[in-house]
Amino acid sequence: xxxxxxxxxxxxxxxxxxxxxxxxxxxxxxxxxxxxxxxxxxxxxxxxxxxxxxxxxxxxxxxxxxxxxxxxxxxxxxxxxxxxxxxxxxxxxxxxxxxxxxxxxxxxxxxxxxxxxxxxxxxxxxxxxxxxxxx
Length: 135
Known about the structure:
mainly alpha
C-alpha cells in the first residue's frame, strides 16, 4: 500500500490524490456542478441571462479588442463575484441559522463585492456606449 492511497490518508479529499487529466476532468465536473448550483440562485440566474444578451453586444459596441475585452470582462466579473458571494452565504448558513454579527458582516461584505462589480460594469458599459454613439 502506497503512502498516497486513500486508505493510508483517510482524512484527505480523494480529489487531492488525483493528478493529470483525471484531476482536470473531475475539477471540470465540479465546476459545472457549481454553475448548476449558481443557476438555482435568482440573482445569479438574472445576471447570467443579462450576460447572454450583453456578451454579443460587447462585440457590437466595443471599438477594438480592448473595449470588447473590458465590456465582456466586467460582465463576467459580476458572475464570478456573485458565485463567490453565494459561496460565502452558503458556508455561513451551513454553520447555523442563528443570527450572529460576524455572519451578517460576512454576508454584507459579499453583497458589497457584488455591488462594486455591478457598478464597475455599469461604468465601463456607460463609457463605451457614450464613446460609441456620442460622436
